[in-house]
Design brief:
This is Nitrogen fixation protein NifT. The chain has a single domain, classed as OB fold (Dihydrolipoamide Acetyltransferase, E2P) (Beta Barrel), CATH 2.40.50. By secondary structure, the protein is mainly β.
C-alpha cells in the first residue's frame, strides 16, 4: 500500500491515502527508519522499504501492512 511518511514537528506520521488515514508513528524498529517496521498509533504495523538514511521527507513509499500473530491464528 502507498504510504506517505512525513515529519510533523519532532514526530513522524504516516498517511495512507487509500484509507484517508493519518496516524502518528509511535514505534520505529530501526533507528534509521528504513528497512524495518513502524507502528502507528492505531496499532497498524507497516514494513517500510530499505531506503538511504538521508531520504528527504515527506516521501511516498510502498509499505506492507504486517498482520500480528493473534490475527494470523484466528484466520487459520
Amino acid at each position: 500500500m502507498k504510504v506517505t511518511i512525513r515529519r510533523t514537528g519532532n514526530d513522524l506520521s504516516a498517511y495512507v491515502p487509500k484509507k484517508d488515514l493519518e496516524e502518528p508513528i509511535v514505534e520505529i524498529e530501526n533507528e534509521g527508519l528504513w528497512g524495518g517496521f513502524v507502528v502507528l498509533r492505531n496499532g497498524w504495523r507497516l514494513l517500510l522499504p530499505d531506503l538511504p538514511k538521508d531520504t528527504q521527507l515527506p516521501v511516498t513509499v510502498e509499505a506492507k501492512k504486517m498482520v500480528n500473530d493473534a490475527a494470523r491464528k484466528e484466520t487459520s
